[in-house]
Design brief:
Structural class of chain B: mainly alpha
Strand content of chain A: under 5%
Oligomer: heterodimer
Largest interface: A-B, 39 and 45 residues
Strand content of chain B: under 5%
Distance between the termini of chain A: 55 Å
Helix content of chain B: 55-70%
Shape of chain B: globular
Number of helices of chain B: 8
Order of helices and strands of chain A: HH
Number of strands of chain A: 0
Chain lengths: ~80, ~180
Amino acid sequence: MVKSGQPVRRPSGAHQGGSEGGLGPNSEIGRKLREYYNELVSEEIPDRFSRLLRELEAAESPGNDEGDGGSKPGERA
Amino acid sequence: MSQAVEFKAGLVQAIPSLRAFAVSLAHNADRADDLVQETLVKAWDKQSSFEQGTNLKAWLFTILRNEFYSQMRKRGREVQDSDGAMTARLAIHPGQQGQLDLDDFRRALATLPEDQREAIILVGASGFSYEEAADICGCAVGTIKSRVSRARTRLHELLSISDEGEYGPDAIASQVLGSGVVG
């Protein structure tokens, strides 16, 4: 019989993602979970979001005189 | 004014994680992006209610999650019921022994009941603590813990893996296979 009553605790402390709930680096589920998630996180961000934020900003301060510069806020440095 | 700039920068920075969380909830990239858009608009409108210095990402995740569930209610779709009836119909056969394919994992994850899936994503992938995840989901820390644990158990079952230790079926199987009885 498998002894399952033991709490899974990582001694390394810090509340990093995955270190809780037995999802740390030694857990295959934990690793797959982060692989799945990281793939989503690293997808390219559609332009609609930078457009949206510019619109929201413009609506907030109609008097802004910065003009419509050519640089895209959505682009990463 | 510069607080607003900071706030906007925070929103921009959070977009990739918001999208990842939204896809995990909605299973559909277009719908996920609509959710993120709604979230950004709402966040912008509620800007004044955000307390500087607190966790902006958690605040945004909360908005996104609320938006997701309120859309589900509007559409009359029901939250998958407790122990995922769909799961029984799903068979996942890992492609190779010991090699867990990401697609298999995705499918398994999709069959989890919503509350379990969001809990394991928040804690296991998005980097939130149990306490933060509980705040985001508006429930007790103990509830999050139990959801994470159930999600984990179910994923293990679905994917027939046992990373718990040496006593899993694989160990027994390899003992049997390795016992040298060859015809």
